[in-house]
Amino acid sequence: MIEKLAIAVAIGHFYSEKLADSSLRKTNHELIRGSLINTSILGFLMLHHWLPYTTMPTILSKIIQTSGAKIYAVLLSIIAISITARWLGPEGRGIVATISTWVLIFTDIGDLSLSTVLVFKASKKRGETWLSGAMGMLSVHTIIITAFSWSLIAFLYVGGHYLGLPNLFGETPLIPLIVGFITLPLILWDAFTKSLLNIEDKLNVYNKYQIIGSTSNALSIVLLVVVSGLGVLGVLLSKLLWQAVVAWGGIKELLKRKTGAIHFKRDNYIDLLTDGMKMHLNIIGAVMLTNIDIVMVSAYLGNAQTGIYQMAVQTSLMMMIVPYAVMTVLQGELSRKGVHAIWGHQKKLLFLTLAFMIGAALFTGFTAKWWLLWLAGEEFAQAVTIFQYLLVWVVVSTATAILSVQWIGRGYFLQLSFASILTGTLNIGLNALLIPKYGIMGAVWATMGTAVLALLINIGMYIFVELDNKKRTVQAS
User: What is the pLDDT averaged over residues 412-429?
Assistant: First the structure.
């Protein structure tokens, strides 16, 4: 294996030199192309030599595998960020950020928390044909949400441009907006397949297609943005390809594992929606907390400032690889072992992950003025300070992500939703108050304010779960 990795690196250097000498050369980007080829080849070697043959019997090893796939995707995302930052500039990245955020708002709301509720349902009862039924319900749901979302977006765009309604999309170009929303059903199925494969203890399959998808995205960005000069449209087409690969791979694996024909039962779907709606206020709160600030920066300050702010947000979200991997694996363990049985492991993982994230935040924060400018260029210098402040939210979000497994496992959907809505409402209020007065930094101060509230909620939830489990231990003895 070591010899093959060495060969892969040598091949990457050879082709990077060829690219550097070709007519496609552009100042300061030969290293990006060479790194992209090296990383892509290493990714394919991971697929052939690591994923198929490695068994993952423990929680920790599953977290490492899931983090590995995410880290690989982030490495390619770093290359993609560097390319798009220099080829598109703050204005172009602002357009991409605005479209991507609108798509995420619609997919997050349209998901109706069904992917999360499925984990809860599976932890209580799971029959032989549950997978076929779940796939049927999620297929119908995707068709309904996609049709409704596309119709609503068309109405809002036409109304804002021609009927005198508020123009929510500003000067966002129509064709990129259409391409962005084509990805909507694929993003929905990304979440659904991740949840279903996790329940089936096949998270490694999802990780495999994430590696393939992120590789195709990075290569497509080079071809469509650097070589073909498609700009914003090229970035969105690359994202479309990524989501198509992940959705197709997950569905293909699920079709192999299902028992019986895919079917749809109205009563089961309504039951799933009922539980989903109890928790979905939490997702709406999350949208109010994580996506709405980008839309508000775009509305108040324009595309260029949005591009700078989104650069800081995107790089800070990359820090969440390990916490999200821990959360994902714990959700799978929850569906198989139950909420009380996993608390001992979950508690240890919570403190280990927090310690790791604090160390990572200190390192990346102190070095951001070098690596972030190298990554994006001097045009994004303002993003350095924003990123450093957002690291506080990253640490708080780590605890939120890991503790959310207890909220879900205990069926505290309404309570979780209330906490999320409360935090999201505070975020919107602070953004509306502070952005007009302080610009981008107003959005940062709003995030700091919500971080304080989220921290208090996390502390309260930890104390409650710890006392409840001690009580159960005493009663059992």
Answer: 84
Higher local confidence (pLDDT), 50 or 427: 427
> How long, in residues, is the chain?
477
What's the sign of the alpha-carbon dihedral 61, 62, 63, 67? positive
Q: First-to-last CA distance in the chain?
A: 51
Q: Is 200 within 8 Å of 257 (Cβ atoms)?
A: yes
Cα gap 371→373, rounded to integer Å: 6
128-185 pLDDT tens trace: 567 888 899 999 999 999 999 999 999 999 998 888 888 878 778 899 999 999 999 9
Q: What is the mean pLDDT of the chain?
A: 80
Give Cα separations from 3 to 10, 34, 69, 379 (angstroms): 11, 20, 22, 41
Which residues, including other chains, have CB under 8 Å from residue 453's CB and lie 6 or more apart? 422, 423, 426
DSSP string, 13-45: HHHHHHHHHSTT--TT-HHHHHHHHHHHHHHHH
DSSP per position, 160-174: HHHSSS--TTTT--H
Each residue's pLDDT tens digit, 302-317: 888 888 998 899 889 8
Cβ pair 83, 221 in contact under 8 A: yes
Q: Are 68 and 43 a contacting pair, CB within 8 Å?
A: no
Segment 45-59 mean pLDDT: 44
Contact criterion met (CB below 8 Å) for 183 and 240:
yes
> What pTM was computed for the model?
0.66
Question: What is the crossing angle of helices 59-110 and 266-290, to 10°?
Answer: 90
Q: Within its chain, how far is the Cα of 249 from the centroid?
A: 18
- How many other C-beta atoms lie within 10 A of the C-beta of residue 334? 23
In 3D space, the residue among 123, 151, 127 whose CA is nearest the CA of residue 265 turns out to be 127
Characterise 444 by phi-psi region: left (phi > 0), alpha (psi -120 to 50), beta (else).
Answer: alpha
Where does residue 160 rank: exposed (0-12), middle (13-18), buried (19+ CB within 10 A)?
Answer: middle
Cβ atoms 400, 350 nearer than 8 A: no
Could you give the angle at the alpha carbon of 111 between the alpha carbons of 257 and 342, nearest 5°?
Answer: 65
Q: How far is CA 142 from CA 138, 301, 407, in A?
A: 6, 34, 26
Contact 91, 231 (CB under 8 A): no
